[in-house]
Amino acid sequence: MQSFNVAILGVTGAVGTRMLQQLEKSDIVVDRLVLLASARSAGQTRIFRGQSYTIEEATTDLFKGIDIVLSSAGGSVSKALLPAAVKAGAVCVDNTSAFRMEPDVPLVVPEVNPGMLSQHHGIVANPNCSTIQMVVALAPIDRQYKLHQVLVSTYQAASGAGQRAMNELFDEAQQRHEGEEETAAILPVKGAEHHYPLAFNLLPQIDVFEDDGFTHEEWKMIHETKKILRGDMNDTELKVSATCVRVPVPIGHGESVYFETNQTPAVPDMQALLAHSKGVVLQDDPAHQVYPQPINAAGHGETFVGRMRADRENPGAYHMWVVADNLLKGAALNAVQIAQELIKRDLVRVPEVTK
Amino acid sequence: MQSFNVAILGVTGAVGTRMLQQLEKSDIVVDRLVLLASARSAGQTRIFRGQSYTIEEATTDLFKGIDIVLSSAGGSVSKALLPAAVKAGAVCVDNTSAFRMEPDVPLVVPEVNPGMLSQHHGIVANPNCSTIQMVVALAPIDRQYKLHQVLVSTYQAASGAGQRAMNELFDEAQQRHEGEEETAAILPVKGAEHHYPLAFNLLPQIDVFEDDGFTHEEWKMIHETKKILRGDMNDTELKVSATCVRVPVPIGHGESVYFETNQTPAVPDMQALLAHSKGVVLQDDPAHQVYPQPINAAGHGETFVGRMRADRENPGAYHMWVVADNLLKGAALNAVQIAQELIKRDLVRVPEVTK
Q: Are A298 and A336 part of one and the same domain?
């Protein structure tokens, strides 16, 4: 069996930690493993398949001989380091938004559009967490019945903003319990002018605002969904809109999704379709109060779908409720699945580079 | 100035407590005050405008001489007691869903449809909390630009299910902190077969499920909105759909509202319209991270609106984010405002009853 030299960039973060775990659980045979993070974390160790590895400070000269880079250290780090990794011959699966909208960078969810992988030039982008779980649920319906409109309102977990944001949520909850004032320092956006508590609150801002009043997170959901389902971030035949809200949940994004198709399938047919779709678990039994919940989805790799019902007044329109672990399927697991798919398709090579 | 004999039914609950407070703050001159609750609470006292009142067990014979009943003791209590109150000559403002869909019972939000009050036969229904804040925000736009479609996803606070549900949320958060298992006993629905923790979780079920897969809460939002804005719970020209989700927030419902109009007004025109609408506070300045949040809305009587923006692809379609204190504008305050409006319009009398 083929073996690979793998580097994980940003291995100490909420997603990086899980990339290491998901790689360990995967069938990827790892020859050499390089763990990279910021200078602050250099020298720490991590166990992988029974062996101890020391974390090194990420620099451009550490990618020599690496076949696969799994990257989740922030957009600016990806921009600074990944071109050098590609030049050294490594294929990079990047979890940041740095390259997602580049026309020659495939944006891939393995259950949805694995065929795009053949077009990579060294970088494959992992979509935004909120986009991944939505397209996993929508793609089977789109393939069968063709979507023309999607409207989503998200209920996004704190960990989407990283481990420290998740810690902040728990700290604030405890501060509230002890009658102290909450001390928000990270959310809604790291480095923003104002910070607001998330515990026992709702923050209708994720990422910065664009000029048209949408946040960048909403912009991502719109354009990434079009790129993944239609191959074009500016596709006009599939209309997509999003409202993204941060909620006081540590792990597990919820999404209230409204969609319109060109046909009028019966709800049980769509439920059956989803029940047999890869990566989807149908949890849709209202009579027994079965529906997706973040506390049940956390720690699992599937996308959970429920509350599917036909709109009462618009023929061909439906509603559903989608939940997934934003750190696993929304990030680390999807990245490892992309690496597996690259291996399966013999695409772990940079076309322009001869090693 | 005219004075009134007022009874508050269910005065010990989350809403009833606030009905007493809002009545105290109001300009209503109260002659005699009768506080009613279940047998369990009888004998307790409450202070109102400096005077102590003893709570009595609610029975049908206590409404004699009462002019106004403010009721929030649950649908079955309203059904059992309010007909007797009306017979005794009292006008009842009922916060439960018991009578909302009766054709001869006005369903009123004073800023929106106060004219309906003249049609009462002794009972005026206070709409559901999630409906009230949405129609306060939508009505000015509807009047000016005529709506034909509304899609809402709600983010509803625990207190919508009562004081005990709110306590349960805080208890669960503390149990989680102490590493204990959460002991849910109330949510999602009191008396349901299964109970799930709300702390750090999302529950896509509010009230029981209808046969079509919608919950009764969603059903209420759909039909109440039509009745309030179009005078007919089954109106077909204004399409309404809702997905209702309980979130781990104690007080303050959030709503992601998508609406379509027959015109294409500019967003600043709609913002100006809302800024000058009664009961609305516009909090819409993304550049300075100003938008409605439950922690800021709690304890206030207004409906807060922000994040207004035009849909990027559907002309005449818009998105906004609406937050209000579900116990005040969503319940106790709206009920007291109805009483004030009844007084102003000289409608504190039951047409069929001569005292």
A: no
Q: Domain limits at B51?
A: 3-127+332-344
Q: Which chain A residues are closer than 8 Å to B241 by Cβ?
A: 258, 311-314, 319
Interface test with A, best of B243, B251, B285 (most A CBs within 10 A): B243
pLDDT over threshold 70, residue B102: yes
Q: How far is A263 from chain B (nearest CA, A)?
A: 19
Indicate if A129 belongs to the active site: yes
CATH classification at residue A62: 3.40.50.720
pLDDT beyond 80 at A352: no
- Nearest-Cα distance to chain B for A217, in Å, is 14
Distance between CA atoms of B40 and B36, rounded to whole angstroms?
A: 11
- pLDDT tens for B225-265 read 999 999 999 999 999 999 999 999 999 999 999 999 989 99
Inter-chain touch B214–A312, beta carbons under 8 Å:
yes
Active-site residue, B253 included:
yes
Same domain, B49 and B30: yes
Express each pLDDT in B172-185 by its tens digit.
999 999 999 888 99
The nearest alpha carbon in chain B to A171 belongs to: B177
Q: Which member of A205, A213, A295 has the closest CB to residue B309?
A: A213
